[in-house]
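User: I'm putting together notes for a lab meeting next week and I want to include a structural view of one of the chains we've been expressing. I don't have a solved structure, so I'd like a prediction I can at least talk through. The sequence is below, exactly as it appears in our construct file.
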Amino acid sequence: MSSSEAASSVKRTAVLKQAGKNYTLVLLENDRPVENFKPLTIKDMNEQIHKSLKWVDDGIPFDDAIYSSVTKGSSFLFEGNRYPVEDPTPFEQKYPANEQRQRQKSLADLIINHKEHALLELQDMASYHKGVDSPDPAQYCEPKKMCTWNDAELQEQVKKKSDELSEQLKLYTPQNRRRVCLGIRLGSGCGKTHVLSEAGRWLGAPLIYVTYNQYQLLNQDRLFPRNALLIRLILAVMGIASPDAGGLFQAQWQTLFDKRITTDLLRDLFLFCAKKAYKGQAIVIGVDETKCLEDKEAAQAVISELGDSCNVLEAPASPHPEHAAALLAAVAGGHIRSLVVARNIMKANKVSVTVPGLLKKMKSRLGLSLQGYELAAIKSYVLRCIEESPSQTDTAIQPYTDEKGAVAPTLILMAFSLDGKTQEEKEDFLKDSQDALLAGADKESQDAQLVVPPAPEDPVTSALLDVFNSATLFVDAPKQLEEMSKAYDKFRQCMGLPVVPRKARIRFPNEGKFQEEKWYRELVFPSEMEEDKQSLLKQEREIIRPSAGKKKETVKVNIVPTGVKIRFGDYFHPGHTSHPWVDRAFAAKHAGTDELCLVLAQDKINAQDFPTAVRNLNKAAHVLSLGFRSVLCIANIIGASSETKAQSEFEFPYILIRDEPEVRAFFSVNFSVPVIFSRKRHLLQLQHGVVDATKKAGAA
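Assistant: Thanks for the context. Below is the predicted structure for the 700-residue chain, given as structure tokens.
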């Protein structure tokens, strides 16, 4: 092939995008940016002409005559009109080929070793593509922005949610941050751009705004959605508008999307950039018009990365192996087939999965084939394990239990939620899991609507999800045990099950009260129960004046009641992180006499602290039990054997949960596996410290 033939075979196109009031022209050869040509800014081109071009991403044919005219830097000719171009300096004078290669080689090293220099390098590259000013997002709304319905209320809701989130974050250390979703607004013309572009002003916080509309070049955004978003966020902090980023991506794609520059590196660079720019202030990030990507997987990846960047700015305390083990314990228990299915799903979906997401995927593999009588049998068996202590597993459900007789958690959830439902209702169950938002999801997830599902209306389903979800709440391990115990109480209350599970052993301070065991086993939960976060006890400082011969005052700390009354129907789980003596408290009623019993629970007693915990539970019972017929104490001791002696100091009837048999007796065989896992995690933290425990928890 001759050189002239080779030249004529080159497909030349041009892509035009708006940059402020001007337009930028990018030349492509065979759909790749021309390396020796700097994108040009075209002045005085009105919007009507631009609309008639209809170039967007596909480009228009660009013949040799136009190419020659433009590359010489004189002007751009279109339909007989000549438009002047700005800064005609040939591209090779700005970025020689060897400098291009050096940029590609060094940018990854700079991000790793010299983030400050990496930001300067990015800023230098972007300066050749920066428009005169940043376009107003409202100009590009479809339909055109006129006003937003209930504008004032919308602003108040955003402010309210921001305040709530700020208060929640105060309760967490940086290692224990959890994801929080304020809301996703769907539809056209419902104020999405209004919120995303104005929320910063409403909240008095810096806004980092990124959008994918305005006729941008989005080829690289589709190929590298996560990395492209992070670079766009960094550029936005630098004052580079979204439309200018597209041209930069096309011109510098080899450098910016070098395989050495990983998503983790860019996330670290964004964090560094944001901290440097905003000095620790709260920031608002708005990412708009993801539909313009016209690629579902790319849009999902952008949403996932936005969630990661906004919520995991600090490294999480829990590494992947521990989190994976907790997820498996929560959704599969000890059921081998469930473990295999869950693990395969986790391996196949290279994303951060959740309990609802795993349950949603597992139901199609494990639960949809179950017949109605099998679902009913599973439901009946789970209830009888708590209230009757069956001697053997029913024949109908033996295929769905593990060696200890426990039913797989996925099947428990389906049995209680879908018993008596149609096949269509079964298939829709948990359909809109939040994992539909995650990149790399399977076809079933992709077909689901991109919405965050509401909490289940059925209180039993909600309670069961709380039980399984609490097994993977990676707050500190002791707090996790509180959440699991509370969720288990809520489930039993919804089902009308007794306060004391059938297999749990009630112990008495002296032999003279053994005849009362029947009374305690007939205690029931309120038919309606509402959680209360108020403190029941508080610390009060008492200054003791010096006595004769002493020169200094001393301070004594007393524990006193707050005056809050425990009523039948209230479930106290104090929100104070260091609430004294008890973790949970509620009033139970005797089924026959309506007499009230105060139930006090401590969920995270270390073995060495057991004697002190017994004394504190006694004190709490004395000061809180006014008006109650009796008291029942529940002590969950971590790292203790069944041979403890400190329980002899109890002054009230009590239940001990010390080793695995006692865990299974209280939580029943079906809910014991995630509880045992959490106890082991807590014990590892006690023995090895938090850092070592996270390395060993998977093996536990």
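A couple of points you could mention at the meeting. Residues 97-311 form one domain. The mean pLDDT is 72.

User: Perfect, that's what I needed.
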